[in-house]
Amino acid sequence: MESQQTGGERSAYPLLGAIDAPADLRRLERGALAQLAHELREFVLDSVSRTGGHLSSNLGTVELAIALHYVFDTPRDRLVWDVGHQSYPHKILTGRREQMAGLRQFGGISGFPKRSESEYDAFGTAHSSTSISAALGMAVASRNKGENRGPDRRRHVAVIGDGAMSAGMAFEAMNNAGVTPDIDLLVVLNDNDMSISPPVGALNKYLARLMSGKFYATASDTAKKVLKNATQLFELA
Question: What is the pTM of this model?
Fold first, then answer.
C-alpha cells in the first residue's frame, strides 16, 4: 500500500508522524496532546477528503481517542467502539496511519473496527448498540480468569453514542452490567446529539436537560476547581 505521507506531508505532522502505536503516544508529555489533537484532526480531514468516508463523527472523537489510548494500556485493556464509523482516529493511532490511503478501498483497511486487521480492534462492529454487551462479556471473562485485580488488572471500555444508546440491546447490557460483580468496565457516552435521523425520545430529552441543567454546570465548575489543584490531571481533562 502506498504511504499517504510523503515528502513535505511528514513535516506537517511532526508529532503524529512519530506515533506508530499507542505506546509511542503514552511517551508524550501531556502538554503536547493538544498539538497532537490538532495534527490528528488535520490528518483526518486530508485523508477522508481523498478516500471518502465518515467525517464529522471522526472529527468528534479525536480528543477522545487520544485520551483513551493515553490513559489505558491498549491492547491489553480492551477498547470497543460502538458502530465503529467513528474509529478513524483510533486506527491512525494504532499503526494504520499510512494505510488510511486505502480506507474503504478494495484491498485496503476497513472503515470499521475489524479484529483480523489489528490487535487493537477488540471487537468487530458496524451494527449499533453492541459495544456495552461485548465489553461486558470481555470483562466477565477477565474476571473469571483472575485478571480483574491488582495494578495490572485488565480494563474494558465501551464507547457508545447517544443514538446507539437508545436501542434496547444497550439498555439490556446496562441492566446486566449494573448487577455483575467484580468487573472493570467503563462506559463512555459520546453524546453529540446526532444520529441517522433527528434524535427523539425520553432518553434524548433527559440528556439534553442534563447537559443544560444547573446540576451539570455546577458539577463541571466544581470539577475544574478541584483539578486546578492537580495540574497534570487538569491538563489531561
Answer: 0.82
Let me know whether 187 and 220 are in one domain. no
Domain boundaries, position 79: 5-199
What cell numbers appear for 173 in the block? 447490557
Same domain? 157 vs 98 = yes
> Within this chain, do residues 112 and 208 fall inside the same structural domain, yes or no?
no
Per-residue pLDDT at 101: 95
Question: pLDDT of 29-80, one tens digit each?
Answer: 999 999 999 999 999 999 999 999 999 899 999 999 999 999 999 999 999 9
Does residue 232 share a domain with residue 141?
A: no
Q: What is the pLDDT of residue 2?
A: 40
At 18, list the grid cell. Answer: 512519530
pLDDT digits (tens, 9 = 90+) for 64-120: 999 999 999 999 999 999 988 999 999 999 999 999 999 999 999 999 999 999 999
129 and 215 fall within a common domain: no
